[in-house]
Predict the 3D structure of the following.
Amino acid sequence: MTEPLIYELSSPGRKGVSLPAVDVPETTFPEGLVRENLPLPEVAENDVVRHFMRLSQLNYCVDTGFYPLGSCTMKYNPKVNEDMARLPGFAFTHPLQDPGTAQGNLAMMYALQDWLMEIGGFAGMSLQPAAGAHGELTGILIIRAYHQDRGDKERTKIFIPDSAHGTNPASTTMSGMDVIEIPSDARGNVDLDELKKHCDERVAGLMLTNPNTLGLFDEHVREVIELIHGCGGLIYGDGANMNALLGVVRPGDLGIDVLHYNLHKTFSTPHGGGGPGSGPVGVVEKLVDFLPDPVVGIVDEGDETKPPLYGLITPKKSIGRVKAFHGHFGVILRAYTYMRMLGKSGLRAVSDYAVLNANYLLAKLRDTYKVPFDRICMHEFVAEGHWDDAPDIHALDIAKRLMDYGFHPPTNYFPLIVPEALMIEPTETESKESLDAFIEAMLAIAKEAREDPETLKSAPHKTLFGRMDEVQAARQLVLCCRPGYLDNPDNK
Amino acid sequence: MEYPKDLKYTESDEWVRVEGKIGTTGISDYAQDQLSDIVYVETNPPVGESLQKGETHSAVESVKAAADVNMPVSGVITEINESLADTPELVNTDPYGEAWMVKFEISDPSELDGLMDAAAYEKFNEERDH
Amino acid sequence: MTYIPHTDKDREEMLAVVGVDRLDDLYEAVPENVRFPDLNLPDSISEMEVTQELQALSEANLEVFHTSCFLGAGAYNHFIPSVVDHTLRRNEFYTAYTPYQPEISQGTLQTIFEYQSMMCQLTGMDVSNASHYDGATSLAEAMILALNQHRGKRNKIVISPAIHPHYRQVVRTYSQGMGIKITGDEKSDTESKDLVKMLDGDTALVAVQYPDFFGNITDLSALGDAAHASGALFCVVVNPLALGMLVPPGDFGADIVVGDGQPLGISLSYGGPTLGIFTTKDKYVRKMSGRLVGETVDNRGQRGYVLTLTPREQHIRRDRATSNICSNQGLMVLASAVYLSVVGKQGLRKVAELCYHKAHYAAERIDALKGFKLWNKHPFFHEFVVKCPRPVAEINERLLEWDILGGYDLGQEYPDLKDHMLIAVTEVIAKEEIDDLVAALEEVSND
């Protein structure tokens, strides 16, 4: 069922879209600077459309079915968001046009900053980071800058729980700090005793995901935070799991000093096949001056006759710019639309039903799949994809077989602390019927694991493509194709 | 699982063969089994570079993992195995023979005493698999 | 409840299965004294109401659909063929996740592979990743690659002042914990030959922009040679649309070519999201960060595509990863792939030529105006600088009366370029609009 590559559909001389003739006197091209060869495809417009249509049909997506991917929050992507982002008054604004001419944009961004601060319990917010990992880097740089600014230059240690997402230690290393890994205890919480052993005046902070990647709200979160604060460190919150906490608890109230949100998880913006996302960062009062440059602020309060004037403000001790221009405006706008519609009660309902759905799945699956940390979960939980009486079956096989039942598999092999992990997050937009169908499939697969393991091991069978040879992909790297005529000079 | 008796082993799964003043090193059968299909081996240090015990001299990659390979004891690099770049699979098929990674002149022979022999390394693996 | 399908009956049944009485009971683990805060947020509204509100907000902006846009400086108003947005609206593309399960993600994976291929052809490099966030962060990642390539033994990065100011700022932000020196852009008139003098045994990377921030196109081969002689990597920041016409950096010795993909079918959208192009030579592929798609076969013998070389990435290397990047700009990659496919070899060249001719016509006419002077000493592509008789901010405020969005005020970032305006002309600008700009500038200069 393979689709040819666009280069394979190409034929010399074919033109795609029509363009106008030049309407000004022509200028000679600069000598020696013009390229002779431009090896791009030559395809007619309708063939381009067919090509990408057929490619799209090879994809599973949220609008096709359920994606219980833990830590990704694959909720429904509202269509109204897409329409709003395309309004010409938004889509045709230039980032460098005078702020006085972009008041609609800036008012919207200011409101979103406000709402995200309110939800998180923060005093300042930057919408500039482009993704969660980007927000993490920003947050760690803010923590570092805070200590440096106080003359406390020896603080280089960042504690990271072993259940953390890989971006946490990677972001820490990028900012020049040292990673100290802290184990989890038997109930999935951060091991307080281990933490106490390492706490000293060289601690810059701790990166906390709460609920953690096991979907569990840390039972000692207050103690962990007080401990770190007590030895002079700050707490970075990874907000990937905020879908469980909207209107339930504000991370700032727990003592988190800086947190990033994932607009593409919690706030419904589409995943787009890998991006774009957006990772706004919220901070408590003492870190406000260190936010990236610029933030949206009010430059003139206005009065009864005129509205406030919004502008771009450079925080006094800013860590600097983390990307060009202002951030992922198109994503921010989608999140704004979502939050404006849902409002206070709607956002609280998101968490309630996300958590209910996860616990419902947990209750129905726990007798068939081992759940190592078996207590009321938040919006996701981790099960083991392995049984002692089916030793040849691994989480990978279960994942691949789920595709035959029409589902996207849950997250595999993460977090690392659970072997053969299957991380399951239903989100609040799945109906009971959808969950029941998933449960049925999972129970059927568990049965197949004992009665017909070969079917699992060679799954998927019903998809258009089978398992890919990843070893070959890595050993014989083919990372781009070349148009055939490049190798045949007569065939320009 | 193979544990050649003439070799010494580290807790980070490297082996060393001592022939006079020269040490030869690579990763153990246990390590290649854990990593599964090796797709890439990178040997970094130029000949003549002096490395401490525990310092990284090479890296191996499989489809699901990447691991640094460290000096079992301190030494000065005398030779690196160039063939691994083209045939990384050798690490899976012959980890103690053709998939040697670097040879070096041993700086401090007393460091060898701190390493495990074949029997101790085998026991070490049994315990960590529990 | 918006987007939540549960009925009261569903909820009661599910609560019973879970074994709690009420939804609130699910949050036992949350400390009581901070539980259930009363958030100061507006109430929920309907879809109809939100669209009315947002329509009004959008109309509070000036936008370049109705205004002649001569503002560039890293973001450009180009024509986006209708095919692009129709493809982006395919649910299978925009509501899909990262292609970790290749069997059901071949659409996304093959698109990325085609994008990677087209980026290589455009830049003359051997390999491209699946994109970074934007041109600025791509440049920062190039810096990281160079530092890693030299295994931490070289600590200097030389950058041209003619690289976009935002990009240079981002490089500095990224480097603040690394203990390295960023230099070369202290004076705005530093040229390639001056950068050559700064190269030494401590330089990991030298970076320039092509065409540069002022629009200039210069011969960079001497700098490339000098970089290699000193052992530094040579990085070129490009405008990919300009490469529809100009010699690609692969031809003059670039090791890394980065840039922003916005001109390739991505709407302005107040600056984001766009995509960061990152391409390099084969020998650096394992040091390159970001996602990578490779070709392979499935167990039924079909050609297919997968994410590959993933052990480089954060989810496996964790604290030993060279970068923390976890995502790519998936949908924007699709936009650029569709744009390049539908515009094609001939179309991209045509768009580039249209920009070139229109910009040169504008430059010539403005240069002839009393009080205005073309500043560029080198050939330029579609952007050029003019010295103005009055502060740029004043001119731009007046130009709005003619529904014209004037160029970028260089004095904001380059103190010795006060009263200099950076003007961009793209293929959407008609001759009449250029003539109107000239007439308006003439009138404004006579005030």
